[in-house]
Design a protein that fits this description.
Layout lengths: L4 E3 L9 E2 L6 E7 L2 E11 L2 E5 L11 E8 L2 E13 L2 E5 L2 H4 L2 E2 L7 E13 L6 E16 L2 E6 L14 E7 L3 E14 L2 E10 L5 H36 L1
Parallel strand pairs: 2-9
Antiparallel strand pairs: 1-7, 3-4, 3-6, 4-5, 5-8, 6-7, 7-8, 10-11, 10-13, 11-12, 12-15, 13-14, 14-15
Protein name: PilZ domain-containing protein
Pfam families: PilZ (PF07238)
Organism: Paenibacillus germinis
């Protein structure tokens, strides 16, 4: 179990109840002729975490049926186990279930450390075009299914021409190569650099599932890290209080 948890590489694929209504609700997870009862502890975007004693019975890729008992009603869904660690499993929150809830952020954004290349840009009216003979490197800071945040490694020559609504042609290195066009929707000064937020204009259809899988995997890894840090902090504070 690498890093203490297992993750299955998953490539799959609103307004209504507040998504927070799911948290701390009783959840019944069943597969084949086995049923376990636990507590739903996390729900954001494509993933749901359920803490349950019999977590080890469930394996990555298992198809399961989950029933969640909330104060707002009963929710039943068919799902798949995509990650697990001691005491809990992560399952997919299927699109038909997500549509029932309103989330604070429609598309979860995860922090990453990846790179890419900027080949050219143009203004939103497509009047002024700039093509870089030597593509500029970019550092990807965070990413979601609808956009990303990045800095340009050597932006001294482009910070004046990269403005809000500029259209960029880039190639992203996410463990797989994805060439796409993006629109700048945010620009701000951060220390000595400019930080850019961009939304995708066009993504190759054949890359959509790979992008979704990349984001999902990173979201799960980030969540497990943050969860462990919170548990460690809580245990440390408890120990410190007991020694006083």
């Amino acid at each position: 179990m690498a890093n203490g948890y297992n993750i299955m590489k998953y490539y799959g694929s609103k307004e209504g109840y507040d998504a927070d209504v799911l948290i701390d609700s009783k959840a019944v997870l069943g597969k084949d002729d086995f049923v376990a009862t636990g507590v739903l502890t996390y729900a954001l975007g494509d993933i749901i975490e359920v803490e349950l004693p019999e977590y080890d019975v469930f394996q990555l890729g298992d198809k399961a049926k989950m029933t969640v008992y909330t104060k707002s009603g009963l929710f039943v869904m068919n799902t798949t186990v995509v990650a697990k660690e001691f005491g809990s499993v992560i399952v997919i929150n299927p699109p038909e279930n997500r549509k029932k809830f309103a989330e604070k952020r429609e598309f979860p954004r995860v922090d990453v450390k990846h790179t890419g290349l900027l080949f050219g840009l143009q203004d939103m009216n497509k009047r002024n075009k700039h093509h870089f003979e030597n593509p500029l490197g970019i550092s990807i800071k965070n990413i979601s299914i609808n956009g990303l945040g990045f800095t340009i490694n050597d932006n001294s020559m482009v910070d004046k021409i990269v403005q809000k609504h500029s259209h960029l042609e880039v190639e992203l290195d996410l463990g797989f190569t994805m060439t796409c066009s993006m629109e700048i929707v945010r620009k701000e000064k951060v220390e000595n650099d400019f930080y850019y937020g961009a939304s995708y204009i066009d993504i190759p259809q054949e890359k959509t599932n790979a992008l979704r899988g990349f984001i999902l995997t990173n979201q799960i890894e980030t969540y497990f890290v943050q969860k462990r840090e919170a548990q460690f902090k809580k245990a440390t504070e408890k120990k410190s209080a007991a020694n006083q």
